[in-house]
Amino acid sequence: MALAGCPDSFLHHPYYQDKVEQTPRSQQDPAGPGLPAQSDRLANHQEDDVDLEALVNDMNASLESLYSACSMQSDTVPLLQNGQHARSQPRASGPPRSVQPQVSPRQRVQRSQPVHILAVRRLQEEDQQFRTSSLPAIPNPFPELCGPGSPPVLTPGSLPPSQAAAKQDVKVFSEDGTSKVVEILADMTARDLCQLLVYKSHCVDDNSWTLVEHHPHLGLERCLEDHELVVQVESTMASESKFLFRKNYAKYEFFKNPMNFFPEQMVTWCQQSNGSQTQLLQNFLNSSSCPEIQGFLHVKELGKKSWKKLYVCLRRSGLYCSTKGTSKEPRHLQLLADLEDSNIFSLIAGRKQYNAPTDHGLCIKPNKVRNETKELRLLCAEDEQTRTCWMTAFRLLKYGMLLYQNYRIPQQRKALLSPFSTPVRSVSENSLVAMDFSGQTGRVIENPAEAQSAALEEGHAWRKRSTRMNILGSQSPLHPSTLSTVIHRTQHWFHGRISREESHRIIKQQGLVDGLFLLRDSQSNPKAFVLTLCHHQKIKNFQILPCEDDGQTFFSLDDGNTKFSDLIQLVDFYQLNKGVLPCKLKHHCIRVAL
């Protein structure tokens, strides 16, 4: 009996041939003995070898088709509760098989089907994979360690989209040269940034802080409006430009005193005005009205160094100049600048940089201009009041009601606050209560005016006691004369050794409003001081001289008629009393280190 599935080399083995010869002849060759029968047997033997190779090929093809069928049915195989495949024990119908060739009964007895080991292993691995995948999914306890191929159970797409606003770093400089980098949102306005800087620098928020757009290479600067977006303004600035953080008390001075702001000869109206304060505001803020600001200005020709004095007219549509005297006929008006895509700046050093005829220059700069000076429309006024009038009119005609809303927002917030909560002070100072111990028992002073008066009296009494103790020879860390010359240096309104020109520049930068002042050391007299004061948009200087009385040093503004032991007393007095000054001291110039 032949071995099924044996290779040809085994069939030709001598031991196998001996066994075949020992087989009964009736089973080997039914035709009988003889040479022909032996040759037929050899021929059949060769045919058996050929059929064996064909049978192996057919079985390989059948097993490959069986593997493909199992793979196609893997998705529809039902699962039991234990996660294994549901298979029937008596398999009634198997997967489709290829049709086997017809073989003789002798071939079926001698040979069985060969086993394709590689295909069976692949089927076993596939079955093991099906069993593993049928188990329930376990969430990954460390989703941050997952790769892209195996994300956690909660994918980023299943969560609501985050609306994170874009942020940007902005560098802001102060008057003393210090700077601070602040991270702001893309929609932050100039007012919001000023309030943030006030909070970070521990200043008192009196709604007079502003953000200044400074261009040192062009010699220009302007105060940003409260509603302007800081990021949007910074996108139009050159790399040399920067933001400054400073005071500006004259930002909304027009709304506080509109009657005395514009000279009558500079303003004309398209309709009759009754001259009241309300009517004046409505004419500027109402978009249907057509106010005109007119007057003579020095105009620098584009691309040239020469200046011409022309009659200029400012309207809502733009800035025009007359080509024929003071005529405002349409055929004589020529457009100088547009208000829509431009901003108005003040010249820092117009005489030195642009050969301006006066120091009161202004400039209309298009937003697209960064470093080019050829497209700048440079103008120059005769005095500071005229320049302030033109710049304010430009802002009113461009922004209108939006500018008035910027002015009203701090006023409305201030009205909502209690008078006891402003100005904002430290927690320890707010927890103090004014007391009166003049009687037998102490009492709480509830009247704010009486409490303030008591505080002033206590301060004056403390100074008198300290002076008397020093005269009597008590141990004091400071001599009276040394104390009076040092105590004022801690105040914000004292600016030390600065020149006359520098003090005027600081006053102009922080707004030419009545009562704006600062104190500085005198350059002509080392023992004296100077009070620099603004009144009616003009800057005046008053010398504070020392004087002696009974061995004590005092300071006076009126040649010794009113004496003060130190400069703090002097400033406190003139903040409450006008005295020999043209107006009371109202606002002090301050420099804050960021």
UniProtKB/TrEMBL annotation:
Keywords: Cytoplasm, Phosphoprotein, SH2 domain. Residues 95-114 have a biased composition (Low complexity). Pfam families: BPS, PH, RA_2, SH2. Belongs to the GRB7/10/14 family. The keyword Ligase does not apply. Residues 493-589 form the SH2 domain. This is Growth factor receptor bound protein 10. One of its GO terms (biological process) is positive regulation of vascular endothelial growth factor receptor signaling pathway. SMART domains: PH, RA, SH2. Residues 82-91 have a biased composition (Polar residues). Residues 290-399 form the PH domain. It is found in: Cytoplasm. GO terms for molecular function: insulin receptor binding; signaling receptor complex adaptor activity. Residues 166-250 form the Ras-associating domain. SUPFAM superfamilies: PH domain-like, SH2 domain, Ubiquitin-like. Residues 1-47, 82-114 are annotated as: Disordered. One of its GO terms (cellular component) is cytoplasm. The keyword Hydrolase does not apply.
